Amino acid sequence: MASTPMDIDDISSLASTPALNITRTLPTANLPTTAQVSDVIFQFRPTKLFSREEAKGTKQQPHILSIDFDDPGDLCMTSESDETIQIYNVKEGRHEKTLLSKKYGVKLAKFTHASSSILYASTKQNDAIRYLSTHDNSFIRYFEGHEGTVTNIALHPGSDNFISTSVDGTALLWDTQTKNWTGKLFLNGPTLAAWDPSGNVFAVASPSSGSILLYDRRNYAKAPFSIFDVLKARGPADPAAAFSGWTKLEFSNDGKHILLGSRSGGHFLLDAFDGGLKSYLKKPNGGTRRQAPGESEVGGIESCTGECCFAPDGRFVISGGKSDLLVWDTLIFPDDNKVLEPTHVLEEKREAAVVAYNPRYNMIATADQDLMFWLPDPHM
């Protein structure tokens, strides 16, 4: 199939910036490649700041809507409210290129398992998902099927199949090799989806019904094999948090837990087998000003990928907020009310509305309007 040129192609870069020394042996931290997350998680400090204000020549900075890393961990990508995709070289600590999508808009940009191709959702004209080759800046395919705003794109862990959810009440399953969806679920307001690490199970979150539905990939046309009642499992959270404000759905890499991010006063750590609440991860200063996917953007900018995530070891949860970066150790028992206070607070004055942990390196990226790279400080 012939590639379709982008409406506008641009590979301009920001002003040159000093290199950030990141290698597989992490010499700056004097730690081997196999350093456990637990050895460095409390040593993270803001290390490299990327600001686009100077490059744009205006004080109107865009908001960053999503952050994603490629599988090797060498590239970091953001989608931004000015309809651009920004790609950064992690090891060299520099801006790599800018891609424009002015005609269709852009959000939810995600790498496929090939670092040179990405998926992203449209924000205007239609609700198609676009499959782009960054090598020659051309579209490979359009995925048309949703009739409302796309709220989430979840890539299968072992293949380039993916799930998308939308405010149109559907969750669609796709194979990147064909333009037509391969499966369709009609649900009550699905807004988030996630694959378990084996790729055999996927979950769809429906805040309007206060539930998380689990499906067997091979039998998804049947009823979900399990339904988790978030209202029942909410613990000390306000009842309203069980039906609104969900920002993130993610399985831990060991498959034992599900993280349900919330823009309220805390996140929910659920047992992936029975849906019970393991801990309510309390945010002392509350959430960010971003809205959750699918919610009205009045009063805030939509946060497409959420302010929280698991570390690759599945033990720690990292979350942004109005300031600072919060860390919870899930091995620590919560109090009698199932509340778990942050185990550590990594100081930072800037709001961190979007958070992602590099899958290959001990490195964290956070963003609101500026992108920040975090590395362990060996002197801590």
TrEMBL record:
Molecular-function GO term, any one: chromatin binding
Main location group: nucleus
Pfam families: WD40
Keyword Transport belongs to the record: no
Swiss-Prot/TrEMBL GO biological process terms: RNA metabolic process
Transmembrane domains' residue ranges: none
Keyword terms: Nucleus, Repeat, WD repeat
InterPro entries xref list: Swd2/WDR82, WD40/YVTN_repeat-like_dom_sf, WD40_repeat_dom_sf, WD40_rpt
WD repeat start-end pairs: 143-178
Entries under SMART domains matching the protein: WD40 (SM00320)
Cross-referenced PANTHER family: WD REPEAT-CONTAINING PROTEIN 82, WD40 REPEAT PROTEIN SWD2
Family: Belongs to the WD repeat SWD2 family.
The protein's name: WD40-repeat-containing domain protein
Organism expressing this protein natively: Podospora australis
